[in-house]
């Protein structure tokens, strides 16, 4: 298959991005480009700025200098660009953020009906298709509280997919899960990657990273310290900070 020019262009571009929380310099000159279909895994110690990077990409946080563009849309303060970007970027959090008082199906149809103007029938059809994809169609009429953590996270992924995003951001999607539920969520994410979804995943699941990542990014103290293909990254990290980190978690 030939790639169009658009597909070879970076779909996420961060160039010289800086952000402060008050006096605290949380992101320092972040440069990160992600191409269509690319899978990037970000790791690094707690507090290094990983969540802030992904939150800046869909404008849950605003950066103060540098440039962020998503699918060619420049991220500025105007509401139009923020809405345009949120329409293209799905996000899955550590905490599943499902509406507890709605059924699984209602959680999935809400966005497509309210934000995309789909009919209820079309939204339901779409929701069931994505529930099949995360392999829990039989849970459609339960409330989130009746599901296991792994099932709830799969619902959260399906809910994002119902908005048909071009890019999926995952921020430690398995960190709140019991060990026996981590695999089922990683399996769904691996399937998405195999289907060509553009993904940024913040995770410390290094087995998943080795299998799925095209590129690893290591952050420490607000900086991207090291980046590279997983084979080289794991076999021979260049920086002492990255080596120390990997020694601690592997
Ligand atoms: P990570 O995801 O790598 O653990 P974060 O991006 O969540 O790191 O946070 C980076 C740093 O910024 C941490 O020191 C955190 O305490 C701080 N921080 C995060 N969000 C805020 C906020 N809203 N206000 C002030 N400080 C924050
Ligand atoms: Mg975080």
Q: Layout of SSEs?
A:
Blueprint: H1 5-8, E1 10-21, E2 24-35, E3 39-43, H2 50-57, E4 65-70, E5 73-74, H3 79-88, E6 89-92, H4 104-114, H5 120-133, H6 149-162, E7 167-171, H7 179-194, E8 198-202, H8 206-212, E9 215-220, E10 223-228, H9 230-235, H10 240-249
Parallel strand pairs: 3-8, 3-9, 6-7, 7-8
Antiparallel strand pairs: 1-2, 1-4, 4-5, 9-10
Helix pairs in contact: 4-5, 4-6, 5-6, 6-7
The structure holds adenosine-5'-diphosphate and magnesium ion.
Verbal overview:
A hairpin with a 2-residue loop joins β1 (10-21) and β2. The radius of gyration is 18 Å and the shape is globular. The protein has a 6-stranded mixed beta sheet, with helices on both faces. A 4-stranded antiparallel beta sheet has the order 2-1-4-5. The model has no long low-confidence stretch (mean pLDDT 94). The chain contains 10 helices and 10 strands. It is of the alpha/beta class and 250 residues long. It starts with a helix and ends with a helix. The chain has helices spanning 5-8, 50-57, 79-88, 104-114, 120-133, 149-162, 179-194, 206-212, 230-235, 240-249; strands spanning 10-21, 24-35, 39-43, 65-70, 73-74, 89-92, 167-171, 198-202, 215-220, 223-228. The chain is 40% helix and 25% strand. The structure holds adenosine-5'-diphosphate and magnesium ion. Magnesium ion is lined by residues 50-51, 171-172.
